[in-house]
């Protein structure tokens, strides 16, 4: 049987320069899934766009053949006219993209955008198209398809938008679906459910899938065959089982080593010492008043976090884990004094073991300045957290200038020292941020946070914008620095596998509440709360024999009202956080 | 919330704004010491014409200029009875122009409508030129089409309006036989509306529209081009391409729709910019708009005339912003539902 799609010796170049992709070949068979794996800049995305010939303006196919052998006979996509090519796009071959937030037009109703492909290619009536769309919406799991049809994208959550994108791609019954990092922007439990959906749809319709991803765990769950790419070349290709079991190429092995995993744990860990706490949050709540949709409707209360009690032990790392909207970033902001908690909440900071605790939200101006020197932050996106108009030197010395520390030459010396701490060279002081890669930029922002010799570092998803291999390096760096400078971390993340590596204690949050709290080993060895279990189960593992348990994910990731009796909470009745074993707390009805 | 409710709400805020503006206009006009009449009285005294002084004193009392400023304001707006009872802007009495020795309403009457006409024509011109050129320049960015459009645009921005006016009059008259100056043939002035008069007005409008509109059109075109280019790089455009849409249809349905917001929001800014920008042009071109009258009134502290014209311009601006706000509500569901896209 010949392949549905075969790509041979694909080459893509920008203008007249050397090709950025060359010699890429792969085949996709009917009903099968091929994964294109690589880090950013590997050429995986541009290669899959080349199939549909939706390349950036300056890019062109410099070599290669793309042959589609489907229901309309054999078609050589690489030299079809643009007009015939449009007949393929969205029809025989459709595509879904990485960012469901931005891949739908915000000004058009979801239904309108979904039926478009059908109307364009099959000249059906509006009523037929709508019926097909409603059916598709029901299939991809919208509880109220009619409403979804009329909704605007901004009324849907990220996961729901990606479902709408899938409905849009599947409505014209394509033979091949190209999914470009379809779940990267989603929470891990949502990712598991969306991947499950794609798999189901594929089984029902026999559609072939090309899945572009950087995550070997996703590959193991989805793909029959794998192509590993790096710098525009294929490094390794073959059946997923073989490649994942015994990666042959050095690059694939490196990717494997870097992929964060939830470790198998043999026993629970002892509870963390509680004598010397650098930061304590007690009974911290935060309620936001959100103006109603209309000027005349009453305002809504959003409870971003509720009664959070957390403590960071000096020299250790406390990680807060949760999906977007769980309140983890609000907690971090309150801990830093960037926002006041609701009355009653207290945040205390103790600069050294014998110092008096200071109240973070009731400080004098001078005390506040002193506190700000002690507590610093590392931000999520290294591309936007460094000013493109400031040289590294200026960005690093600015905190010292603000606090009036040292002379010019001392500041400069300190900046050079910090650069070396984070593994960069002192010659880089006079460069601008654009000359650095994503990983290097994150090193820069760590160096900036260290300039004031803080004792507490708040890291807000410091690795989630980075490639896996870079993420690995940054985590190692953070661990080194913590031990070398005796720092304490408050580490915010949505990824349990990242946290597994660096945290000494983990607090899992959902809807503003801490639902489970324990050292990571204890948490992985003996997870109690259904939501924790779902988070662990949803983590894709790069092992073909350990598929995601979708049932477990669905049980825990649903609304808190759907949890088993002993964990259930409603807006009025919330179970309390109970210690089930030393150092292990679970929110359940005792 | 329903559109009607919103429109009503905007109308109320417009009234409040207009009231605040009226206070500012009145007090700013009265900032320089003295007023038209006291200046005139001083001058008459100096030349010893005592009978004229009495008449001026009478006018001062008649228009309450001898009262404290705040009372003058309330009388002017019509919140408080003046020497002749309630008679202010609200009651439709626009006051007396000392400079022209006529009621303000008689002076501005026709000029008001001519101003509206000239500026509406200019706004239409701006949109009709900027929309196609801006879209074309963005769709064919960095080709000769784009560069030519940009060059013509910058030329339009950089040429002083009065110079452009003189050049166009000269060549328009020489080669196309277009009339020079004025807004209609002098024979129709003061005549009732007739087909010939309308034709004459339209013919006279061509050059002023072009002169007043060019720079606005050039700026608007560049803005639309930049907005559209931004939108063209967004992922939803790629989604539309991957669906197999033809480029022209895709462009008009998605990115153009998005780029339209600033385009519409500009209506509010465009109107006052043009009215005030066209003052000089009106003087040069001899157009019977309120421009020349405003200039004269401000120079001689003719406060009721100046105040009325400024109020009128403010009203135009507020109507412009209100229209654009309501249009934005219609165009953009995110505004309609009072939420921001995250």
Describe, in plain words, how this protein is organized in 3D.
The complex is a heterodimer of chains A (590) and B (342). In chain A, a hairpin with a 2-residue loop joins strand 4 and strand 5 (73-76). In chain A, 35% of the residues lie in helices and 24% in strands. Chain A has an eight-stranded mixed sheet, with helices on both faces. Chain A has a six-stranded mixed sheet with strand order 6-7-8-3-9-10, with helices on both faces. In chain A, strands 2-1-4-5 form a four-stranded antiparallel sheet, covered by helices on one side. The N and C termini of chain A lie far apart (61 Å). With 590 residues, chain A is α/β, with parallel strands linked by helices. Chain B has 342 residues and is mainly α. Chain B has two domains: 30-103, no CATH class; 106-336, MetI-like fold. In chain B, 74% of the residues lie in helices and 1% in strands. Chain B has 15 helices and two strands. The radius of gyration of chain B is 25 Å and the shape is globular. The chains are: A alpha/beta (590), B mainly alpha (342). Chains A and B meet through helix 2 and helix 3 of A and helix 9 of B.
